[in-house]
Design goal:
This protein is α+β, with helices and mostly antiparallel strands. Helix content is about 35%, strand content about 10%.
């Protein structure tokens, strides 16, 4: 049986952005809604432009049933060319990876996306010539290597009117004043200085135009080795201790060069280790954290668990979900990165020690750790504008190689590694553990991860400030169309209207209270924590004693190595670290002070909204965090309306602004993965426990009766 919508009679044209060109198209393409044997789907037109692949059906032209959370640039059936991960063709029921020139064209096309969507198109009813054009066009424009100047970014920048919202509070760190302001904000201007040595990029094209170094570092030292071996300031703690990073010298050098570099480094270390500077602790991240290749391997395995295009695959993986999840090693990498960030925070906060992060280029794991430490220790980095400024400072201006790490130009998979995504996963752990501490939501983080693949914004499409500057002027591209005025991703009005942007802001954010001398701090924060109880999981006591240790030992013996790995990990933190970690967790949380993530075993969770949002079987309709949030928003709205009525009755002015609260429509029926799963199909399989489902699968006569009621009460 095939459930279909009839082919559309009226011609539906794609919505094209400024600079977007239609390259090829095919009519009468059948898009499967699901692949569970029912072949539900709809006919439409499949098009490929220089920006995206898009499927257009009769719903594309209709504004009815439009979601509350709609992206103005990338629609539900749109895939940007940079978001395409892999393309498979189906030949006689066999899947084959499609790359380069094709000799034979498939009858079905399966597109796996980097945001974990899966699109399944049937081409049996499409004209042969159109099949050849659309398949070869999609494969060519999304899979073959391209030049930087061929990115849609440049077409859009030269064609789009520059009328974006100028009220963006994000600090871009592209001027000397921005760095000086940051030094002043963190009280780091006593021992550190912003330098102009790299103006004209005479030191290095990899370094930003302006950066901050210890006052005692001379200009000659910076120039000597193109900025290598120079401690660059990231952030200063309230007690004066600072977080620094350094680009290491290449390991393979001849003896004389190595001796000279060693002498240079010794001189630098001596200079910044004596007063007024604190003691210095050096941390080589290449030896203390997983390699980029390990991170890429783990994520490749991890994402396979979510690239599911049919219910059968879902239920097959569900049976062994936890063992598959553990074998990817992705959650363990997140735990190790968070643990490293806590170690650095302990040095800064408790030991009053400067920490120098060392990495070959200081633009990958250095960015992850320095960003995490600032999110944990600086409440400003937990506001939306503060977090965006942090990403600008450490990643965009800091020189993270987005083109290579995201493989935007399809030049080499060897350089690919989801380093920025790793940071967002780590920040999400903090957001879900301490919701009131963050001004932004997990939806904000999910949308930010999606924006990695939208080449309308320049933010994630350059490797350095030098590359961005020369591209914007048109120098490096040798084009006549420059200078370009690129958009920044931080202007959310380009992607979302004001109603949709409300989902990026946390209505339960505990704003920093104004100082009140008559009120004790501890009482205030204790009260705030009680308010947050419905949003957070109950936390077990972390105090260890005889019975706790004996219980741990017993559980380890009973349940074997796997559970033991969570309780007594092989890289168990040293005593001082454990003492610092447990001491902090034994006290009430100050949402505007230091935040330490819980990292023991099961505390590290899967970012469900990002990874499960396209899988209907994993959704809980009318449940999850959104159900609790919707109820609390209803109460907040009711309280606000009562407040207004009281003020009107007493003829008093409202004290402060009354913020309007947006309550999601039909909140009782929303998916637990709202706002992304609002229009997604529901699962056609019964939501039974795994063991029950497996038992049913063993009974042939029951498997075939999906829609029948099976009375199991006799066994109970």
């Amino acid at each position: 049986e095939i459930h279909i919508k009839e082919p559309i009679e009226k011609d539906v044209n794609p919505h094209l952005l400024p600079g977007e060109l239609l390259l090829c198209e095919a009519s009468t393409v059948y898009k499967y809604m699901q692949e569970d044997g029912s072949n539900r789907g709809t006919y439409g037109k499949l098009v490929c432009t220089n920006f995206k692949i898009s499927f257009l059906d009769d719903d594309s032209a209709s504004d009815d049933n439009e979601p509350e959370f709609k992206n103005k640039i990338v629609g539900e059936n749109d895939i940007t060319l940079q978001c395409v991960d892999q393309i498979y063709g189906v030949y006689d029921e066999k899947k084959k990876l499609l790359t380069g020139q094709l000799r034979k064209y498939p009858e079905r096309l399966i597109i796996y996306c980097k945001d974990l969507r899966v699109f399944n198109f049937c081409l049996r009813y499409t004209k042969e010539e159109e099949v050849k054009r659309i398949v070869s066009g999609i494969v060519h424009h999304s899979q073959t290597p391209k030049l930087l100047k061929r990115l849609f970014l440049f077409s859009y920048a030269s064609a789009a009117p520059n009328n974006t919202d100028g009220r963006n509070q994000t600090v871009m760190f592209d001027t000397l004043e921005d760095w000086r302001d940051e030094l002043e904000r963190t009280k780091g201007n006593v021992k550190y200085k912003a330098v102009t040595t790299n103006e004209g990029y005479r030191v290095s094209e990899k370094l930003p135009l302006y950066f901050v170094v210890p006052i005692c570092i001379s200009e000659e030292s910076i120039l000597k080795y193109e900025g290598r071996g120079i401690p660059i300031w990231c952030w200063s703690c309230h007690n004066g201790a600072a977080l620094l990073k350094m680009s290491a010298f290449p390991k393979e050098q001849d003896d004389s060069t190595s001796q000279m570099q060693k002498a240079f480094l010794d001189g630098i270390y001596k200079t910044i280790s004596k007063p007024p500077y604190e003691l210095l602790k050096m941390d080589d991240l290449s030896s203390s954290l997983p390699s980029l290749q390990d991170i890429q391997t783990a994520y490749t395995r991890f994402k396979q668990l979510f690239l599911i295009d049919n219910s059968t695959d879902f239920w097959a993986t569900d049976v062994k979900w936890f063992s598959l999840l553990e074998s990817t090693n992705w959650l363990e990498i997140i735990r190790r990165v968070l643990k490293k960030a806590i170690e650095v925070a302990e040095c800064l906060e408790r030991q009053h020690t400067n920490v120098l992060l060392i990495e070959e280029s200081a633009t990958d794991l250095c960015c992850v750790i320095s960003s995490l430490v600032q999110v944990m220790m600086d409440s400003y980095s937990r506001t939306k504008s503060g977090f965006q400024s942090l990403i600008q400072k450490e990643w965009v201006i800091g020189g993270h190689g987005f083109l290579e790490r995201c493989n935007h130009l399809r030049k080499s998979e060897k350089e690919e590694a989801p380093v920025f995504l790793l940071l967002l996963n780590c920040v999400w752990q903090l957001v879900q553990q301490y919701p009131p501490a963050f001004e932004f939501t997990e939806t904000y983080l999910t949308v930010l991860s999606d924006s990695l693949y939208v080449p309308v914004f320049s933010t994630f499409f350059f490797n350095s400030q030098h590359q961005r500057d020369t591209s914007a002027s048109g120098e490096s591209l040798k084009t006549q169309s420059g200078p370009f005025r690129f958009l920044t991703v931080w202007d959310w009005s380009v992607q979302f209207d004001s109603k949709a942007q409300a989902f990026l802001n946390n209505p339960f954010y505990a704003e920093k209270p104004k100082p009140d001398k008559n009120q004790r701090k501890t009482a205030r924060f204790k009260h705030q924590r009680q308010l947050s109880l419905p949003l957070t999981q109950p936390k077990p006591s972390t105090k260890r004693g005889f019975f706790r240790e004996e219980t741990d030992h017993l559980i380890k013996n009973i349940l074997g190595k796997r559970i033991g790995k969570f309780i007594n990990s092989s890289d168990e933190p040293p005593n001082s670290f454990r003492e610092f970690y447990e001491s902090w967790h034994s006290k009430p949380v100050d949402y505007h002070g230091l935040l330490l993530p819980r990292i023991d075993g099961p505390e590290i969770k899967v970012w469900a909204q990002r990874y499960l949002r396209w899988i209907p079987e994993a959704q809980l309709h009318g449940g999850g965090t959104i159900a609790i949030t919707a109820k609390i928003l209803d109460l907040m709205e009711e309280v606000q309306s009562l407040q207004v009525k009281m003020d009107e009755e007493h003829s008093q002015a409202v004290s402060g602004d009354v913020h309007s609260v947006t309550t999601p429509r039909n909140s009782a029926r929303l998916s637990s993965l709202f706002p992304f799963a609002l229009l997604q199909r529901q699962s056609v399989k019964p939501a039974l426990p795994t063991s029950t489902w497996k038992d049913l699968e063993d009974e042939d006569d029951l498997v075939k009766r999906d829609d029948e009621f099976v009375d199991l009460s006799g066994d109970m």
